[in-house]
Amino acid sequence: MTEDTVTRAVTTHVVGAGDDAITYDIHGDLADATVDRPALFLFAGPMDASGLALLAARITDRPVVTYDPRGAGRNPVGTADITVEQHASDLHRVIAALGVGPVDAFGTSGGAVHLLALAAAHPDDVRLAVVHEPPLAEHLPDREAVLAVVADMKRTYGEQGDGAAMAKFIAFVMLDGPVPDGYLDGPAPDPAMFGLSSEDDGTRTNPLMRNMPGTIAYRIDVEALRELGERVVVAVGVESGDALAARGGRSAAAAIGRRVTDFPSHHAGFTDQPGYPGDPAGFAARLQEVLG
Protein backbone atom coordinates (compact mmCIF):
# COMPACT_ATOMS: atom_id res chain seq x y z
CA MET A 1 0.00 0.00 0.00
CA THR A 2 1.27 3.46 -0.87
CA GLU A 3 0.09 7.02 -0.32
CA ASP A 4 -0.73 9.54 -3.01
CA THR A 5 -0.40 13.31 -2.76
CA VAL A 6 -3.56 13.59 -0.70
CA THR A 7 -2.47 10.74 1.63
CA ARG A 8 -5.11 8.43 0.21
CA ALA A 9 -4.39 4.73 0.33
CA VAL A 10 -3.72 3.07 -3.04
CA THR A 11 -4.07 -0.70 -3.33
CA THR A 12 -3.06 -2.74 -6.35
CA HIS A 13 -5.05 -5.67 -7.71
CA VAL A 14 -4.99 -8.03 -10.71
CA VAL A 15 -7.92 -9.49 -12.58
CA GLY A 16 -7.36 -12.48 -14.86
CA ALA A 17 -4.26 -14.58 -15.38
CA GLY A 18 -1.52 -15.20 -17.93
CA ASP A 19 -1.74 -12.98 -21.01
CA ASP A 20 -5.16 -11.79 -19.80
CA ALA A 21 -3.86 -10.43 -16.48
CA ILE A 22 -4.82 -6.79 -16.01
CA THR A 23 -3.37 -4.69 -13.19
CA TYR A 24 -5.46 -1.96 -11.61
CA ASP A 25 -5.24 0.39 -8.63
CA ILE A 26 -7.90 1.58 -6.22
CA HIS A 27 -7.28 5.05 -4.79
CA GLY A 28 -9.24 5.34 -1.55
CA ASP A 29 -11.99 3.08 -0.25
CA LEU A 30 -14.63 1.69 -2.59
CA ALA A 31 -17.01 1.72 0.37
CA ASP A 32 -17.10 5.50 -0.01
CA ALA A 33 -18.76 5.26 -3.42
CA THR A 34 -22.39 6.39 -3.57
CA VAL A 35 -25.12 6.52 -6.18
CA ASP A 36 -24.45 10.23 -6.73
CA ARG A 37 -20.67 9.87 -6.40
CA PRO A 38 -19.81 6.46 -7.86
CA ALA A 39 -16.24 5.27 -8.21
CA LEU A 40 -14.41 7.08 -11.00
CA PHE A 41 -12.42 4.95 -13.44
CA LEU A 42 -9.63 6.94 -15.16
CA PHE A 43 -7.71 5.42 -18.05
CA ALA A 44 -5.80 6.10 -21.24
CA GLY A 45 -4.38 3.95 -23.99
CA PRO A 46 -1.67 2.89 -24.25
CA MET A 47 -0.53 5.21 -21.43
CA ASP A 48 -0.52 3.26 -18.17
CA ALA A 49 -1.81 4.20 -14.72
CA SER A 50 1.23 6.33 -13.87
CA GLY A 51 0.16 8.90 -16.47
CA LEU A 52 -3.14 9.47 -14.65
CA ALA A 53 -1.52 9.92 -11.22
CA LEU A 54 -1.78 13.72 -11.12
CA LEU A 55 -5.43 13.63 -12.12
CA ALA A 56 -6.30 10.82 -9.71
CA ALA A 57 -4.70 12.70 -6.82
CA ARG A 58 -6.92 15.72 -7.45
CA ILE A 59 -10.23 13.81 -7.41
CA THR A 60 -10.94 13.66 -3.68
CA ASP A 61 -14.72 13.37 -3.46
CA ARG A 62 -14.94 9.68 -4.39
CA PRO A 63 -12.78 6.57 -4.82
CA VAL A 64 -10.75 6.50 -8.04
CA VAL A 65 -9.62 3.53 -10.09
CA THR A 66 -6.73 3.54 -12.57
CA TYR A 67 -5.29 0.68 -14.60
CA ASP A 68 -2.61 -0.45 -17.02
CA PRO A 69 -4.10 -1.31 -20.42
CA ARG A 70 -3.37 -4.68 -21.97
CA GLY A 71 0.25 -4.89 -23.14
CA ALA A 72 1.38 -1.86 -21.13
CA GLY A 73 2.78 -1.02 -17.71
CA ARG A 74 2.75 -3.91 -15.26
CA ASN A 75 0.84 -6.25 -17.56
CA PRO A 76 2.32 -9.04 -19.70
CA VAL A 77 3.96 -7.87 -22.92
CA GLY A 78 3.75 -9.44 -26.33
CA THR A 79 4.03 -8.71 -30.04
CA ALA A 80 0.52 -9.43 -31.37
CA ASP A 81 -1.84 -6.61 -32.29
CA ILE A 82 -4.37 -5.61 -29.62
CA THR A 83 -7.96 -4.82 -30.57
CA VAL A 84 -10.37 -2.24 -29.20
CA GLU A 85 -12.73 -5.09 -28.34
CA GLN A 86 -10.07 -6.68 -26.15
CA HIS A 87 -9.58 -3.42 -24.26
CA ALA A 88 -13.35 -3.00 -23.80
CA SER A 89 -13.55 -6.53 -22.43
CA ASP A 90 -10.68 -5.79 -20.03
CA LEU A 91 -12.44 -2.66 -18.77
CA HIS A 92 -15.62 -4.67 -18.29
CA ARG A 93 -13.72 -7.27 -16.25
CA VAL A 94 -12.15 -4.64 -14.01
CA ILE A 95 -15.52 -2.97 -13.37
CA ALA A 96 -17.08 -6.34 -12.56
CA ALA A 97 -14.22 -7.10 -10.15
CA LEU A 98 -14.80 -3.79 -8.32
CA GLY A 99 -18.29 -4.98 -7.41
CA VAL A 100 -19.71 -1.53 -6.72
CA GLY A 101 -22.09 -1.21 -9.66
CA PRO A 102 -21.86 1.33 -12.47
CA VAL A 103 -18.87 3.65 -12.41
CA ASP A 104 -18.22 7.06 -13.85
CA ALA A 105 -15.49 6.73 -16.46
CA PHE A 106 -12.98 9.08 -18.06
CA GLY A 107 -11.08 7.70 -21.05
CA THR A 108 -8.51 9.70 -22.95
CA SER A 109 -6.78 9.18 -26.30
CA GLY A 110 -6.87 5.47 -27.15
CA GLY A 111 -8.65 4.99 -23.84
CA ALA A 112 -11.44 7.23 -25.13
CA VAL A 113 -11.95 4.85 -28.05
CA HIS A 114 -11.99 1.92 -25.63
CA LEU A 115 -14.57 3.73 -23.49
CA LEU A 116 -16.85 4.27 -26.49
CA ALA A 117 -16.64 0.54 -27.20
CA LEU A 118 -17.32 -0.33 -23.55
CA ALA A 119 -20.30 2.02 -23.29
CA ALA A 120 -21.85 0.56 -26.43
CA ALA A 121 -21.26 -3.08 -25.48
CA HIS A 122 -21.85 -2.83 -21.71
CA PRO A 123 -23.99 0.26 -21.03
CA ASP A 124 -24.83 -0.88 -17.51
CA ASP A 125 -21.15 -0.64 -16.54
CA VAL A 126 -21.06 3.13 -16.79
CA ARG A 127 -23.23 5.88 -15.33
CA LEU A 128 -21.43 8.65 -17.24
CA ALA A 129 -18.71 8.26 -19.90
CA VAL A 130 -16.38 11.24 -20.46
CA VAL A 131 -14.63 10.59 -23.76
CA HIS A 132 -11.56 12.82 -24.15
CA GLU A 133 -10.09 13.24 -27.65
CA PRO A 134 -10.53 9.81 -29.25
CA PRO A 135 -8.20 9.58 -32.30
CA LEU A 136 -10.81 8.14 -34.65
CA ALA A 137 -10.55 8.37 -38.42
CA GLU A 138 -13.91 6.88 -39.40
CA HIS A 139 -15.93 10.09 -39.71
CA LEU A 140 -13.15 12.37 -41.00
CA PRO A 141 -13.15 13.61 -44.60
CA ASP A 142 -9.50 12.52 -44.90
CA ARG A 143 -10.13 9.07 -43.40
CA GLU A 144 -8.33 7.18 -46.16
CA ALA A 145 -5.29 9.45 -45.97
CA VAL A 146 -5.10 9.06 -42.18
CA LEU A 147 -5.28 5.28 -42.43
CA ALA A 148 -2.61 5.29 -45.16
CA VAL A 149 -0.27 7.23 -42.87
CA VAL A 150 -0.94 4.81 -40.03
CA ALA A 151 -0.37 1.80 -42.31
CA ASP A 152 2.96 3.30 -43.40
CA MET A 153 3.90 3.82 -39.76
CA LYS A 154 3.03 0.22 -38.96
CA ARG A 155 5.08 -1.00 -41.92
CA THR A 156 8.03 1.07 -40.76
CA TYR A 157 7.76 -0.45 -37.29
CA GLY A 158 7.90 -3.96 -38.70
CA GLU A 159 10.80 -3.22 -41.04
CA GLN A 160 12.91 -0.70 -39.11
CA GLY A 161 11.85 -0.89 -35.49
CA ASP A 162 10.80 1.48 -32.77
CA GLY A 163 12.79 4.67 -33.40
CA ALA A 164 11.91 5.08 -37.06
CA ALA A 165 8.22 4.33 -36.44
CA MET A 166 7.92 6.58 -33.39
CA ALA A 167 9.53 9.46 -35.28
CA LYS A 168 6.78 9.14 -37.88
CA PHE A 169 4.15 8.92 -35.13
CA ILE A 170 5.35 12.06 -33.36
CA ALA A 171 5.51 14.02 -36.60
CA PHE A 172 2.00 12.88 -37.47
CA VAL A 173 0.38 13.79 -34.14
CA MET A 174 1.99 17.23 -34.40
CA LEU A 175 0.14 17.80 -37.67
CA ASP A 176 -2.56 20.46 -37.30
CA GLY A 177 -5.37 19.83 -39.75
CA PRO A 178 -6.17 17.24 -42.43
CA VAL A 179 -3.43 15.15 -43.99
CA PRO A 180 -2.08 17.21 -46.90
CA ASP A 181 -1.72 15.77 -50.38
CA GLY A 182 1.65 14.08 -50.86
CA TYR A 183 2.27 13.74 -47.12
CA LEU A 184 3.85 10.31 -47.52
CA ASP A 185 5.98 11.43 -50.46
CA GLY A 186 8.26 13.57 -48.32
CA PRO A 187 11.39 12.36 -46.52
CA ALA A 188 10.89 10.35 -43.34
CA PRO A 189 11.63 12.27 -40.14
CA ASP A 190 15.00 11.60 -38.52
CA PRO A 191 14.50 9.81 -35.15
CA ALA A 192 17.34 11.91 -33.73
CA MET A 193 15.11 14.99 -34.10
CA PHE A 194 13.01 13.56 -31.28
CA GLY A 195 15.83 12.12 -29.20
CA LEU A 196 15.22 8.61 -30.56
CA SER A 197 17.68 6.02 -31.81
CA SER A 198 17.59 4.87 -35.41
CA GLU A 199 18.99 1.49 -34.40
CA ASP A 200 16.58 -1.44 -34.51
CA ASP A 201 16.90 -3.46 -31.31
CA GLY A 202 14.68 -6.20 -32.73
CA THR A 203 11.88 -5.88 -30.19
CA ARG A 204 8.31 -5.45 -31.33
CA THR A 205 6.50 -5.00 -28.01
CA ASN A 206 5.73 -1.26 -28.18
CA PRO A 207 2.10 -1.06 -26.96
CA LEU A 208 1.39 2.00 -29.08
CA MET A 209 2.32 0.21 -32.28
CA ARG A 210 0.50 -2.94 -31.17
CA ASN A 211 -2.69 -0.87 -30.90
CA MET A 212 -2.44 0.55 -34.38
CA PRO A 213 -4.11 0.69 -36.79
CA GLY A 214 -6.97 -0.94 -34.84
CA THR A 215 -7.64 2.00 -32.54
CA ILE A 216 -7.59 4.71 -35.20
CA ALA A 217 -9.57 2.64 -37.70
CA TYR A 218 -12.19 1.56 -35.15
CA ARG A 219 -15.83 2.04 -36.13
CA ILE A 220 -17.97 3.12 -33.20
CA ASP A 221 -21.48 1.74 -32.71
CA VAL A 222 -23.26 4.96 -33.55
CA GLU A 223 -26.80 3.77 -32.80
CA ALA A 224 -25.90 2.23 -29.43
CA LEU A 225 -24.09 5.39 -28.37
CA ARG A 226 -26.92 7.65 -29.51
CA GLU A 227 -29.27 5.70 -27.27
CA LEU A 228 -27.13 6.64 -24.26
CA GLY A 229 -27.82 10.33 -24.84
CA GLU A 230 -26.38 12.60 -22.17
CA ARG A 231 -24.56 9.71 -20.54
CA VAL A 232 -21.82 10.20 -23.15
CA VAL A 233 -19.79 13.42 -22.95
CA VAL A 234 -17.25 14.02 -25.72
CA ALA A 235 -14.46 16.34 -24.57
CA VAL A 236 -11.84 18.22 -26.59
CA GLY A 237 -9.07 20.47 -25.28
CA VAL A 238 -9.34 24.19 -26.06
CA GLU A 239 -5.66 24.20 -27.07
CA SER A 240 -5.80 21.06 -29.21
CA GLY A 241 -6.50 22.82 -32.50
CA ASP A 242 -7.09 20.47 -35.40
CA ALA A 243 -4.79 17.63 -34.35
CA LEU A 244 -6.07 14.15 -35.19
CA ALA A 245 -7.45 13.35 -31.73
CA ALA A 246 -9.32 16.66 -31.51
CA ARG A 247 -10.76 16.17 -34.98
CA GLY A 248 -11.65 12.61 -34.10
CA GLY A 249 -13.47 13.77 -31.00
CA ARG A 250 -15.48 16.39 -32.84
CA SER A 251 -16.41 13.99 -35.63
CA ALA A 252 -17.46 11.27 -33.17
CA ALA A 253 -19.59 13.76 -31.25
CA ALA A 254 -21.34 14.82 -34.44
CA ALA A 255 -21.94 11.20 -35.46
CA ILE A 256 -23.70 10.36 -32.19
CA GLY A 257 -25.58 13.64 -31.95
CA ARG A 258 -23.68 15.17 -29.04
CA ARG A 259 -22.15 18.59 -28.65
CA VAL A 260 -18.45 18.81 -27.82
CA THR A 261 -17.59 19.78 -24.25
CA ASP A 262 -14.55 22.05 -23.90
CA PHE A 263 -11.81 20.97 -21.51
CA PRO A 264 -8.77 23.00 -20.46
CA SER A 265 -5.40 22.67 -22.16
CA HIS A 266 -4.48 20.08 -24.79
CA HIS A 267 -4.44 16.33 -25.48
CA ALA A 268 -2.33 15.65 -22.39
CA GLY A 269 -3.69 18.54 -20.33
CA PHE A 270 -4.18 16.35 -17.26
CA THR A 271 -0.38 15.97 -17.01
CA ASP A 272 2.44 18.48 -16.62
CA GLN A 273 5.37 17.33 -18.71
CA PRO A 274 8.64 19.23 -19.21
CA GLY A 275 8.32 21.27 -22.38
CA TYR A 276 4.63 20.41 -22.71
CA PRO A 277 2.92 21.94 -19.67
CA GLY A 278 -0.68 21.06 -19.06
CA ASP A 279 -3.23 22.24 -16.54
CA PRO A 280 -3.83 19.36 -14.12
CA ALA A 281 -5.71 21.50 -11.60
CA GLY A 282 -7.98 23.10 -14.19
CA PHE A 283 -8.49 19.78 -15.93
CA ALA A 284 -9.51 18.04 -12.70
CA ALA A 285 -11.89 20.87 -11.80
CA ARG A 286 -13.54 20.68 -15.22
CA LEU A 287 -13.88 16.92 -14.98
CA GLN A 288 -15.53 17.18 -11.56
CA GLU A 289 -17.87 19.85 -12.92
CA VAL A 290 -18.89 17.59 -15.81
CA LEU A 291 -19.39 14.61 -13.51
CA GLY A 292 -21.69 16.66 -11.32
From TrEMBL:
<protein>
    <submittedName>
        <fullName>Alpha/beta hydrolase</fullName>
    </submittedName>
</protein>
<feature type="domain" description="AB hydrolase-1">
    <location>
        <begin position="61"/>
        <end position="157"/>
    </location>
</feature>
<dbReference type="GO" id="GO:0016787">
    <property type="term" value="F:hydrolase activity"/>
</dbReference>
<keyword id="KW-0378">Hydrolase</keyword>
<dbReference type="InterPro" id="IPR000073">
    <property type="entry name" value="AB_hydrolase_1"/>
</dbReference>
<dbReference type="InterPro" id="IPR029058">
    <property type="entry name" value="AB_hydrolase_fold"/>
</dbReference>
<dbReference type="Pfam" id="PF00561">
    <property type="entry name" value="Abhydrolase_1"/>
</dbReference>
